[in-house]
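Dear colleagues,

As part of the handover before I leave the project, I'm documenting each prediction I ran so the next person doesn't have to rerun anything. This entry is a single chain, and its sequence is reproduced below.
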Amino acid sequence: MNTTVPTASALTWRDRAGRTPVPPERWGRDHWRLLAYVETRTVDHHGLLRWDHLTLSHTNWPSLYAARAWTNRDYSHDAGETHPLRLRGSADGAPGVLPGHCEADALMDLADAGLITIEMPRPDAGGDYFLKPDGRPLAGQEYPSPRFTTGLAELQLMPFARFRLTDRGRAVADALRAHKAAGGAWSAFEPTRMG
């Protein structure tokens, strides 16, 4: 399991401790829908994800959960437990869900499989601000300065990371779209071009 995902800038996207990686052959509805969502956000929104569109565990991914719209914040339960990742069942009877894991964990699986890249915000030319994926500055006292970054700054900036499909990810996303266009279910998708 990777503990960090290398990015183009000096900042690093941080995977969470204790995540159980899921191999592609076990991916179900949640992983494949998430790949399609990342593709859409890459095309239409510079690769910036809307965290309130994902099922997130506030226990495992607090900085991403905090970036959700305030109307969607509910700390009375943890989505990783109440809505765990749905997986493809296996021949040996392994369960079709992974408790304690959410769609942010599935993003890490997509990165581990080489289907997506994650780029942390980069500083502007003057080194005064970090930039959102669309090039607008993250300005204000609530955002860290590029002149002094810490691990906490990385956590604060993770919600503004840019997600992109790799060439391999595009090939799999194309096959996924063809599968869905032919009436196939998300959970029944079996990629032939993962290798």
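Helices lie at 29-44, 62-66, 79-82, 103-112, 151-157, 167-181. The chain has six helices and eight strands.

All the best with the project,
I.
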